[in-house]
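---------- Forwarded message ----------

FYI, see the Phosphohexomutase record below. Original note from H. follows.
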Amino acid sequence: MKFYPLQFQPILKDRIWGGTKLKDYLNKPISSEITGESWEISTVENDVSVIANGVFEGKSLNELINEFPEQVLGTNVYKKFGKQFPLLFKYLDARQDLSIQVHPNDELAAKRHNSFGKTEMWYVMQADENARLIVGFKENSSQKEYIENLENKTLIDILDTKKVKKGDVYFLETGTVHAIGAGTVIAEIQQTSDITYRLYDFDRVDANGNTRDLHVDLALDAINYDVVDAEKSYSKVENEANAIVDCPYFTTNFIPLDGSLEVVNDENSFLVYMCVEGSFELKHNDVTYSYKTGDTVLIPAKISEFEIHGKASMLEIYIS
């Protein structure tokens, strides 16, 4: 079987806080005014990605992995996770602030939800003037202080707010209280999990006048009340893979491509490329594939050598 770079039909999610930038900036086929997320590669239950190109078109990612687990996932990934695809890739458009939330760690998520935890990272693709993120507490806090501020609707006062610009990266370990602020487009890489504990939603109501559920009690022992250092600095050497995040769940590199780059993969892990700016071409087995801003491509582990060329900013993701 000859494997090739895989693209998927985007899974589009309307959100109370969403907008139209996923169409305007990333060319996603959205038709609503409140599209908040494009799930690019997912095996979350009931949201499994479907292949959009080549001979596997129409197959789900799970079907392909079941048929060719090591060839798709890689030797080491298959040993560690079996036939589970362990990551979820998204683009998000925050027209309004997202809720303040937290994600449980692997232990809590397995115990309560039979799920992975949700370690994640954000790459800021676009930010309006004065756009901000909330990441952790301003000072070391406590469960008592947190509850008091939550009850008094002053939680925002004890949380750390960060002004952001294009290219900023934040790595959010489980337990970090956080919120994506209005006016940002984010590329998000995370464990395969849809477990979120919503702490505060600014008392918003939906079109029917209903507030969204909060998960205050569940969150209490999931929260890290200490100050976190989540912002990541990284090099931007052209035509090289510059390390941003290297954690047990994923490794992410930044590639400022201006020319060409030969890639050799040891077949231990799949590779994913998210094109966050510009365009590039990938050549494999004398076939050339073209990608642009907002495209996400999965390179099965069995593809051990290929070349990329163009002028683009890219995120390269794999599992060490």
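H. also flagged this: The helical segments are 21-24, 61-67, 69-73, 75-81, 106-113, 143-151, 155-158, 216-219.
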